Amino acid sequence: MDPFSAEGELLTIHNAFHQGQYQAVLDFGTSSLSQSNVVPARVLKLRAQIASGDTQGALSSIKKEGGPDFAAVKAFAQYSLGDTSSATKQIDQLIESSSENATVQILGGIVLQADGRTEEALSLLSKHQGSLEAIALITQIHLQQNRTDLALKEVSAARKWAQDSLLVNIAESWVGMRVGGESYQSAFYVFEEMAQTPSSTSSKSLISQAISELQLGRLPEAEAALNQALQNELKDNEAVANAIVLATITGKRAEQQQYLDELRKLQPDHALLTDLEEKSKLFDQAAGKYAAKVA
After folding, report:
1. CA torsion through residues 10, 33, 79, 121, sign
2. pTM, full prediction
């Protein structure tokens, strides 16, 4: 039986992780799990620890652990810390020796995509055997490629055999946010339910709700959801990034600059900052072509 299915032992910890409830993942009891599920649960706990900002702690706890699952976590953690060269080298070695391992597929796919090796990431993830997380990652990658058609195809196929899966609902909502129109409202319902239900709320779900509110043109509601996310003790970089977007749209220049400065401190290489820098350079180049020439 699939441990992540509705009847599986890991459904609760799996859903908590993908809802962004990292403390709930860390607190999840594993003493009664079947032996085959101990390592997958440990991997989710380590990933939650990394997502919570304690990457060094996660690395230290598996220093002496062997096997492809923990090797993949080590590589993922090192990549998160900026040691990209060593991390990608380890992932390449793991792909050669253990490409059928689910953890290698997921974390290897994440690292490869982050490193700009999209086709290799898709090739690795496509080896999955009914992994909903692999499907969600493939969907994300296709959306980043602006291939909404392929992303829609991926979630539509998964919906046929995983109809009640939370992760399929989330992935389908990502696609809906790109398709637009009535799909905005459908995505909003999914994210709002997660964000406003005490048992599933998190910064991640609040940010998702805020983005869907933003797409629906409900700016005050988007601001309220983002403010909730920003009030969490562990500051979420994505909450700050989306606060920049909202402040720009609403014309709040002082707040925009405040959040820009904050994001530069939290994550100088954040995709939004990189994109802004690239666009600024392109604007300067274009403007230079029309600069007044002094005879």
Report:
1. negative
2. 0.89
